[in-house]
């Protein structure tokens, strides 16, 4: 076997490990949201719900401003009580994760956590339910990005976990991605979410955020395909890059728990994929979606040969029950191939 050129690594040769304690320590916003604030959130004037949502979330995070003091006989208006949880309902690419990170940064507490749904379920898997509850109990805030409803078992474990934490005083903020053409213009996901946490529905304020995917506003909507010479030239200029065949990576992902995908790309500056093909197997496609999420969170550029990455999911898949996941992944793949 020949050694890889300097600056090139192969993800298929990595077997990352991640302890429960490391998982807990990693529950912070992704690097691109390290400085996310309400002030830096750019609401689209064509969609007033974005600015309205931001103002509601400021109140949720830091509380309402003090009421003005009137005369001796004036009555101070009673502020409506904010529920202990907020659920951001809307399409992908409208800034929900930015707002979720802004909540995290604005809440004045030491013990607070931010992670994707899969990171929390992985924590339960690694530590066990009781130890996870014990570690998270007493935290001021739990932020859950991309709340999933695909696996009934995981969903019910999470709703039970959240129920115990809310009862102990923890506040919650959650998002879920919904494609613009989904049933009820995105309401379907919110209804499913609230139904699944039937015992906690009254704890959540559902906040609707409309808009157009900001990534599609920035790019032409297509992922560029490179020829082999262009591919090698671009990877050579991107620092430490991975270089794997698409089939090799897809096969390797089946042997790495999704909670460890973030460690799979440790120390990588760019992702290289050769001979991309269209996916037809649902399990392979869902693992690739989870991998794309971690690559996007790490803000790594992707370079590829073969099939265009924005067409990697078949039409049959895009018409199925995981449509929202695939559309989100396509949006992120387009952005990453242009980075």
From TrEMBL:
Coiled coil: none annotated. GO terms for biological process: cell division. GO terms for cellular component: cytoplasm. Transmembrane segments: none annotated. This is Cell division protein ZapE. NCBIfam families: ZapE. SUPFAM superfamilies: P-loop containing nucleoside triphosphate hydrolases. Keywords: ATP-binding, Cell cycle, Cell division, Nucleotide-binding. Gene3D superfamilies: P-loop containing nucleotide triphosphate hydrolases. It comes from the Bacteria.
């Amino acid at each position: 076997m020949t050694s890889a050129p300097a600056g090139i690594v192969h993800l298929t040769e990595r077997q990352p490990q991640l302890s429960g304690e490391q998982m807990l320590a990693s529950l912070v916003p992704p690097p691109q949201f390290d400085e996310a604030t309400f002030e830096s959130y750019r609401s689209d004037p064509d969609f007033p719900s974005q600015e309205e949502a931001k103002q509601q979330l400021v109140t949720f995070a830091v509380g309402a401003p003090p009421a003005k003091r009137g005369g001796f006989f004036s009555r101070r208006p009673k502020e409506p009580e904010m529920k202990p949880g907020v659920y951001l309902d809307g399409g992908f690419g409208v800034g929900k994760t930015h707002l979720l990170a802004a909540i995290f940064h604005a809440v004045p507490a030491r013990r607070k956590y931010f992670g994707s749904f899969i990171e929390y379920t992985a924590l339960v898997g690694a530590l066990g339910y009781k130890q996870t509850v014990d570690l998270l109990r007493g935290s001021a805030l739990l932020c859950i990005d991309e709340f999933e409803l695909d696996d009934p078992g995981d969903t019910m474990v999470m709703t039970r976990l959240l129920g115990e934490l809310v009862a102990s005083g923890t506040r919650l903020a959650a998002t879920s991605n919904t494609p613009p053409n989904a049933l009820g213009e995105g309401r379907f996901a919110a209804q499913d979410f609230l139904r699944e946490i039937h015992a906690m529905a009254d704890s959540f304020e559902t906040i609707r955020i409309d808009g157009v995917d900001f990534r599609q506003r920035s790019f032409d909507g297509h992922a560029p395909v490179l020829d082999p010479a262009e591919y090698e030239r671009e990877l050579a200029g991107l620092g430490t890059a991975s270089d794997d065949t698409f089939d090799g990576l897809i096969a390797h992902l089946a042997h790495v728990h999704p909670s460890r995908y973030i460690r799979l790309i440790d120390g990588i500056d760019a992702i290289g994929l050769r001979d991309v093909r269209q996916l037809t197997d649902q399990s392979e496609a869902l693992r690739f979606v989870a991998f794309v999420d971690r690559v996007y969170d790490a803000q790594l550029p992707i370079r590829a040969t073969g099939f265009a990455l924005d067409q990697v999911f078949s039409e049959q898949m895009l018409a199925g029950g995981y449509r929202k996941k695939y559309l989100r992944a396509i949006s992120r793949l387009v952005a990453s191939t242009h980075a």
